[in-house]
Structure of Homoserine kinase:
Amino acid sequence: MTANGPMFTVQVPASTANLGPGFDSIGLAVSKYLIVDVYEDTGWRCVAKSPALEGTPTDESNLLFQTALEVAYEYKKTLPYCRLEVESDIPLTRGLGSSASAIIAGIEIANILCDLQLSMQEKLDIASVMEGHIDNVGASLYGGLVIGTYDGQSAALVQQSITDMELVAIIPSYELKTSDARNVLPGQLSYAEAIQGSGVSNLLVAALLKEDWKLAGEAMKRDLFHEPYRTPLVAELQVLKTLPSHSDIYGYALSGAGPTVLCFVRKGAGELISKELKEHFPSCAVEGLQIVNEGVQVVFNTVTHLKG
């Protein structure tokens, strides 16, 4: 540790998940960040330095510490006392992977402080167990587009960089808890519905990997797994569906469990689309986002934040 700086800094990108029919299996890292400076200390303390984190726990009950302590325990290590100074522009409970980014940061903190030397696969498996699915944590860990599966014990994914598409986020002021969004989903689908839904999901994956954004956008709109049930909870998605088609908007999807809605737009059109959509969503934050092809990053002995 330097005299003026932390021992190390962990930066984790936010994420969006599902992308329509890619339910619990497709994620994308986006340009909002959780940044954690880790200092030596005589206890476990967490200091929030961003308005988005106001009200989060300051002791070991914070998700960052909970994750790090659990990982250390699983590997029969003792997590050293430390102070975490945390900044974030990822809105909480808005469908942009705030908990997933904290889990990835917590794993890295334990990995470094306890010298675990975890592989990326081990980190992914741990994160998937903690989060319960792979899409958000996979995107925050690896960056870019991730497509994968998690069977309750182990996770597997494919990562792909995306460079020629932008996003516009419509972020409502209200929160939508993941548990509430999950409760509206059906307990099961018929065999015919499952076949049709998986076919649409397969089409989405093929279109994304082929970089056929128009086809990918169409596939997003044909989801059968979650959006039909969650749309009544998100007025913004209902409004978006009524707007005329736009040549620069390939498609849109509920981000994770919502309520954020993401528009997938032509490269270079994000700023213009943001201005146009603000007229339709005056009570929401409407902003352009970039796809981030780098996942979690760690820099030692630094006071320079990595963002961007």
